[in-house]
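seq as requested:
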Amino acid sequence: MLFRSSAAICGALVALVISVPAARSEIVAVHSLAVVAAASGEAIVGAASTYNPFKPGWREGGPNTASGERYDPSVWAAAIKTSLRQKFGGVLYGARAKFALVEAVGKKVIVKINDVGPLTPGRIIDLNERTMRYFDPSLQRGVIKGVKVMPLLGDYWIPGPVG
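struct tokens:
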């Protein structure tokens, strides 16, 4: 009986140890003050929408981003308006990714800017699906107005929510 109890406790501990790192990697938060201090230049304010070139009927682009990476709906990434390309360090094929702080609806997130595009007029950024779901979990809004986007200095940010 003691052996069964020990085995059950050991099994529960193994399950806990395995599940904690997975949960922790989902909720990586960066200290707000450090992010705000690294934001360079003035914030760009406008509307944000979402995109996924793999959805049927998508009219622009393809599966590869301007940086050469394949579009991935599960990472924290976005496409910036073509005219803002230089403000974000170029976003060039094969170059190191650029990062931005995106603020909307009382939330902040660091995104990797790995694509550019001729966005719909009035929009400054197209968020991939994961990032848009952070701001709009049901994806019912389609467009979020009053979004602030600030380029971040440096190349080694961890994309995700800012706590």
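The chain has one domain: 29-161.
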